[in-house]
Amino acid sequence: MKDKIFGVLQRVGRSFMLPIAILPVAGLLLGIGGSFTNATMINAYHLEAVLGPGTVLNGFLNILNSCGNVVFDNLPLLFAIGVAVGMAKQEKEVAALASVIAFFIMHTAIHAMLVLSGKLVTAPEVMDAAGNALAGMVGSVEQTVGMLDGSVTKVLGISSLQMGVFGGVIVGLGVAALHNKYYKIQLPQVISFFGGTRFVPIVCSVAYIFVGILMYFVWPVIQTGIYSLGALVNSSGYVGTWIYGIIERALIPFGLHHVFYMPFWQTAVGGQLEVSGQMVYGAQNIFFAQLAHVGEIAHFSVNPGTRFMTGKFPFMIFGLPGAALAMYQVAKPEKKQAAGGLLISAALTAMLTGITEPLEFTFIFVAPFLYAVHSVLAGAAYMLMHILNVGVGMTFSGGIIDLLLFGILPGAAKTSWYWIPVVGVVYFAVYFFLFKYLILKFDLKTPGRDDSEEVKLYRRSDVDARKASGDGQSSVDERSQMILNGLGGRKNVVDVDCCITRLRCTVNKPELVNEGLLKKTGAAGVIKKGQGVQVIYGPTVPNIKADLVAYLPSAPDVEYHGEEPAAEESSAGGNETIKNDAAESAGKKASDGKKTPLYSPFTGRVESIEHAPDVTFAQKMIGDGFMVMPSAGEVLAPCDLEVAFVFPTGHAMGLKTKDGMEFMLHIGVDTVKLEGKGFEPQVKDGDQVKKGECLLKFDLEYVKNNAVSEACMVIYTALPEGASIVVPEEKELKALDYAADLLGV
After folding, report:
1. Any idea which residues carry the catalytic annotation?
2. CATH 1.10.3210.10 for the 592-743 domain, yes or no
3. Is the omega angle on the peptide bond into residue 19 within 30 degrees of 0, that is, cis?
4. Maximum Cα–Cα distance for the chain, whole Å?
5. What residue spans define the domains of the chain?
6. Which residue from 87, 301, 632, 670 could staple onto 176, CB 3.0 to 4.6 Å apart?
7. H-type helices in 196-305, by residue range?
8. CA distances from 102 to 11, 162, 169, 244 (A)
9. What is the dihedral of CA 180, 186, 190, 191, to 10 degrees?
């Protein structure tokens, strides 16, 4: 249980990196835009003519500032999407869409509850001295009643509870859980269109109505707790800052540091401060709010504010390079050159960008004791920056780039950045001498000191691999493995997609595709067109595709040249014999049963479905039916029926009669590629339709000119054994005319 929780937390931490990754860009825009529009800086360097208000460059820089701000203003939504995508196992784009929908629904539900409870009221924007709205004045404002200051805010235009990134994380985690549970769900045939990935946004929408209602009651209690925790942390003084720094570094090996520091950066846990008349919560948000109004700020706030960020600069820019130099110094003479190249690269990466993984994980891998020392020193750096009142913020790193943008450019008066190199020089010396002593004292096998020929740094993957050593591999999806082999192996597959009934793949070598092996996986047929391969599975194909896509990354990257027999290796004549025998047998069985007339939804020439220009329909791989070569673009209901589904592109729909007969209408061949152009469905899923009502309108000329064929199919997908459909006469007919006989049912 403990390992399971730990694994989940690891995934949560990694998922945070997706939205965090945009912060350097947003911070760059804010840093450049805010610093170079700072009136004090402009006046000090006499740049009014170039950067002053009204200049083109000033206008452009203000645009950069605004563009940076919009990212930080909408971080909750970005976290909702990022966490959902990061935690989703497969079909991540579906999780992303569902998270956006759930985010809006949750906050809308909270807003409705606030209004219904009377805690959010609308008042006139302009009143006279007596409190009456002034006549002719337009506009109103929303006011809270009986709630904490700052507990309600605007979230994408919706007045809702101030949940910060926690709101996004709640949405992201919940959507990911629902997505992973339901993205391959199989629903009953009548509603099968809503199965698989299509079910995810639906279930998330419903679920987050109730989550929003629940948050209305729960979150105010959490808000009170968060504010209290923030007050405790902010009153803990310098020792609290040191402990924060130690914990933040100590969690790096477990990948949980993001889980720890994000509440301090993005919520009231990290403090609250009024900036330009608006209350701002979270250390990073406070810093960037001040950066956006740099001209109004005497000195960037440290507590609350940068005390949870600035400590990274001394050990990332100076300390870790000192450790790298120590490791180079103690490397074996014959390995110094190789070790030096690696260590210099890693040190420069830490200095410039604040990415410390290669060095830190080398400590973890070869000498965990060194990492413990490093964590204590890192915590001390946080405390020293707090004591010295250094107000330099960051996006996510503590490298030279962030120091330049958020320390030097805003000016020493606002940031006191000069203390960073002062402390940093000391840190360089401490790391160098202490690490050199410890490596030699305990004979630690840092790069260039081990007995192997390979000189390397270590990364998280090495640590994870060590943890996983000895663990059994997860079971292989045997069907997906067989499908992939049938397609010629992973190396032969270029891409995988699906439509309503077919797995659609592109392969490098069509000759490697093994139809016999594919049919053993449950395929009704295989169609090869050049490098395109279509494997017919029916309505369950979205789940088959999802499984195959999930299996692909772990599959051997090779071509498969198996010896499985090809599909129906007998001659075409032999196939025809089998088919004729089957037809004769079916006809014999059917002749003993009743005959039911079937009516055409289309106007045109009715023919046997065996004349269809697509082998899938001609060989009745999906089901028996009849074909109409249309002369008009209107489709009518041939009887009273229920609409089971309308395919998103409009070219196909599933229908069900009152006596339970299921059939599908398919307009044209390969019309899914038209992406809905030329099709106008007149009904939607779940509609009850009377005979003669219009189901669909389509542009017949457009289909003729842009599809393989305009042939329209009526396919009965669930006929009992022995049943068949016979077209007694190929003829011209109108919609609703008698077209064929259903025999044996």
Report:
1. 499, 666
2. no
3. no
4. 101
5. 2-124+143-233, 239-462, 478-554, 592-743
6. 87
7. 199-234, 237-250, 257-266, 283-292
8. 21, 17, 12, 33
9. 0
- How many CB atoms sit inside 10 A of residue 729's CB? 10
For residue 594, what is the DSSP state? Answer: -
Distance CA 526, CA 535 (A): 5
Q: Write the DSSP string, 504-529.
A: EEEES-GGG--HHHHHTTT-SEEEEE
Residue 493 pLDDT grade (very low, low, confident, very high; cuts 50, 70, 90): very high
DSSP string, 532-576: EEEEE--TTHHHHHHHHHHHGGGS-SS-----PPPTT-S-HHHHH
* Residue 102 contacts residue 207 (beta carbons within 8 Å): yes
Q: Cβ distance 39 to 295 under 8 Å?
A: yes
Tell me whether the omega of the peptide bond preceding residue 304 falls within 30 degrees of 0, making it cis: yes
Kindly state the tokens that stand for 562. Answer: 């198996």
**pLDDT 10s digits, 45-100:** 678 888 888 899 989 988 988 887 788 778 889 889 988 988 887 888 999 999 99
Tokens of 190: 């009548």
Residue 374's nearest CA partner among 385, 362, 384 is: 362
In terms of C-beta density within 10 A (0-12 exposed, 13-18 middle, 19 or more buried), how is residue 194 classed? Answer: middle
Number of H helices, E strands in the chain: 27, 24
Top-tier CATH class for 478-554: alpha beta
Identity of the amino acid at 211 = V
Q: Which of 229-243, 278-292, 491-505 shows the highest mean pLDDT?
A: 278-292
The answer to whether 486 and 514 are in contact (CB under 8 A) is yes
Q: How far apart (Å, rounded) are the C-alpha atoms in residues 193 and 188?
A: 9
Q: What is the pTM of this model?
A: 0.50
- For residue 165, the surrounding DSSP H or E stretch is helix 164-182
- In angstroms, what CA-CA distances link 341 with 20, 432, 460? 30, 18, 20
